[in-house]
Write a structure and sequence with these properties.
Blueprint lengths: L1 H23 L5 E3 L2 H7 L5 H13 L6 E2 L2 H26 L4 H11 E2 L2 E2 L3 H7 L4 H11 L12 H19 L9 H11 E2 L1 H4 L1 H26 L20 H19 L5 H6 L1 H4 L10 H23 L4 H24 L23 H8 L2 H26 L2 H4 L4 H8 L12 H34 L8 E2 L2 E2 H20 L4 H4 L3 H5 L2 H12 L3 E5 L9 H4 L7 H7 L13 H5 L5 E5 L19 H7 L1
Antiparallel strand pairs: 1-2, 1-5, 3-4, 6-7, 8-9
Helix pairs in contact: 1-11, 2-9, 3-4, 6-7, 7-8, 11-15, 12-22, 15-16, 15-20, 16-20, 17-18, 17-21, 21-22, 21-25
Length: 619
């Protein structure tokens, strides 16, 4: 027994050492922008991009300069990209765009004695020796001709014309611009880093991921021998600093939130973490370079696999939990990770085939639809499959099996919550106000997702099937790209990632599924009103121990239903079955049965409310 405890402690020490090493790798290495770095990073851009940005880097004294601080380097990269875009725009404007002199000529010939007479003849006169420019100006401004529009104010004409010319100049420079966003910065930073980690990626992979996996499994498996008796143990769960909002929990909370913020918004700061998993990426693509999303996929799968083994051990005497855990691991590792990496090798969209709308909020975006249509018959099938999955299979399966078939057996979000988040399930708020907040948030988000889908889908239809209406990006006054961006930021990133996972140690493991997931809301409505699924209760056997309510990750007061012998038919229930697993009396049972009698509400009869002898006489 003593030796087992020592091994368990050793596993914890190794795991902590791996985490420290993992964090420490962020501060290893130097950053240098060389001509080779620029050529590699922008290899898919025109030659002029590479030569111009090299010139700008030399002028700003950035080329071949060594930086040992990623924050300083990021600032310099921002300056480089800003200066480059200014210079390339000026150059393209002089070559292909309209100069200020040409714009002034248009104004001089169009505005006479305060009257505006802008025509095609004016354009042809100004650009007599430049027919290509004349064509560009005509296509962009023919709606402003005197025959089409009568301008009363000179300022209105000048503003409209100037704005349109700015659009022309911007479009001319479009293919040469380098947007100073997180993706460009990430690519440039990844190509620029040098140092010991760059040269020893496999070694660092072993010191971080390898050591962390070994240490955590050693800690988990020794627990099997320390607690060999049957039964689910939650001893001391409210006394632990890790599982009851103690200092350990707040450290984990800070780490998870910081990770998600960096992953979503500042991936160029975690380039070294992506370098660590480059050897794994090379298994799919020779000398492949890992992105932040590949890193996330690896971390996701490793976390679920390690904590999944913990679930197998903890719930080893409950076959439902064992099979359910195996299922979510299978769908995450095969569908959400391996297939997403393998499909692009065959020129197919790298999509998660189990990810249904509205959880997949980019499903009807123009780039996603185009990607599928351009991938041949299989790509078109995958697009049709997404529609059938969301509108046919999801409601059909919910009718027969409730939300549990997806939320607890298939979904990656639910899978992470059930494995990595299992130690925090007891933290889910059971108060009535939490139930109200749940309904006030999750259903408006579903409505938001529906509105966004309609607007974005209309824009996609115009782009793919109605070219005459291209450029009309709005519906009901809502811009398709803007609403998709807002939804992606607020719901896809902040709620689902930063809060949904980062807040496990504070809010419990299903805060996203309970308060934010639009797919859970969609399925929940079906489950509540038209489904064969319910959790039945045997009130006569309930001893009111409260285990079921304590460990309900969805914040349902299961005991209140059990005491009354009332079926549990709640939109939020994901059918994880843990309430039944922790019940010492077998009071709870997950069932799929005919709808008749599914909703069974029993009033509680108290001695002060009724004469029990009268009740017996009536029977």
């Amino acid at each position: 027994m003593k030796n087992l405890k020592i091994l368990r402690l050793l596993g914890l020490v190794l795991f902590i050492a791996a985490i420290v090493a993992f964090i420490g790798t962020l501060f290893i290495g130097n950053y240098t922008i060389t001509e080779k770095v620029l050529n590699t990073t922008f290899s898919n851009k025109p030659e002029r991009v590479r030569t111009t940005i090299k010139t700008v880097a030399q002028e700003k004294d950035i080329l071949n300069k060594v930086y040992n601080n990623v924050f300083v380097f990021d600032k310099e990269v921002g300056v480089l990209l800003e200066e480059y875009n200014t210079k390339i725009t000026d150059l393209i404007e002089k070559e292909k765009g309209l100069s200020q002199n040409e714009i002034d000529q248009i104004f001089a010939k169009s505005i006479q004695n305060g009257r505006i007479n802008y025509t095609r003849a004016v354009v042809d006169t100004v650009f007599l020796k430049a027919p290509e420019k004349a064509k560009l100006v005509d296509e962009a401004t023919n709606w402003m001709y005197a025959e089409n529009r009568n301008y009363e104010k000179e300022t209105d004409f000048r503003n409209d014309f100037t704005n349109k010319i700015a659009d022309i100049n911007r479009n001319n420079a479009q293919e040469f611009l380098l947007y100073p966003n997180k993706y460009t910065k990430f690519d440039l930073t990844k190509a620029s880093i040098t140092g010991t980690l760059q040269e020893n990626k496999t070694t660092y992979l072993g010191l971080t991921f390898g050591l962390g996996i070994f240490g955590s499994l050693l800690f988990i498996i020794t627990g099997l021998f320390l607690e060999p008796l049957p039964g689910i143990k939650n001893n001391g769960i409210y006394l632990s600093e890790a599982t009851n909002r103690g200092w350990v929990a707040f450290f984990v909370f800070a780490f998870l939130v910081s990770f998600y913020v960096l992953l979503y918004f500042f991936p160029f700061y975690i380039v070294n973490w992506t370098n660590i998993v480059d050897p794994l990426k090379s298994l799919f693509i020779r000398n492949g370079k890992a992105s932040q999303w590949f890193l996330y996929g690896v971390l996701y799968c490793v976390s679920m696999l390690v904590m999944g083994i913990r679930m197998f051990i903890k719930y080893r005497h409950n076959s439902y939990q064992v099979v359910r855990t195996a299922s979510v691991l299978f769908f995450q590792i095969i569908f959400a990770f391996l297939l997403v990496e393998i499909l692009p090798l065959f020129d197919l969209p790298g999509v998660d085939l189990k990810n249904a709308w509205p959880l997949d909020y980019n499903f009807v975006t123009d780039w996603n639809v185009k990607q599928h249509l351009e991938a041949g018959h299989l790509g078109k099938f995958m697009l049709v499959w997404g529609v059938v999955l969301s509108l046919v299979i999801v409601p059909f399966m919910v009718y027969f099996y409730g939300k549990r078939w997806y939320c607890s057996w298939v979904c990656g979000c639910g899978g992470l919550a059930e494995t990595l988040g299992d130690p925090y399930r007891q933290l889910s708020d059971k108060r009535l106000i939490a139930w109200k907040i749940e309904r006030w948030t999750i259903y408006p988000i579903l409505v938001f997702a529906i509105v966004m889908t309609v607007v974005v889908g209309y824009n996609t239809y115009n782009i793919v099937y109605n070219p005459s209406n291209i450029g009309n990006n709005t519906l009901f006054g809502i811009n398709a790209y803007k609403i998709n961006e807002v939804y992606g930021f607020l719901i896809g990133s902040i709620f689902a990632g930063v809060i949904g996972t980062g807040f496990y140690p504070i809010l419990g493991n299903r805060s996203w599924c309970r308060f934010g997931c639009p797919l859970a809301a969609y399925m929940g409505l079906i489950q509540r009103f038209k489904s064969r699924f319910r959790i039945t209760t045997n009130g006569g056997q309930c001893i009111s121990c409260g285990n079921c309510s304590t460990y309900c990750e969805q914040g349902i007061d299961v005991r209140a239903y059990a005491q009354k012998g009332e079926n549990i038919v709640r939109a939020s229930c994901v059918g994880c079955g843990v309430c039944a697993a922790v019940c010492p009396r077998g009071v709870l049972k997950l069932e799929n049965a005919p709808e008749k009698g599914r909703i069974k509400a029993n009033e509680i009869l108290l001695g002060n409310d009724i004469d029990l002898m009268d009740l017996l006489n009536k029977k």
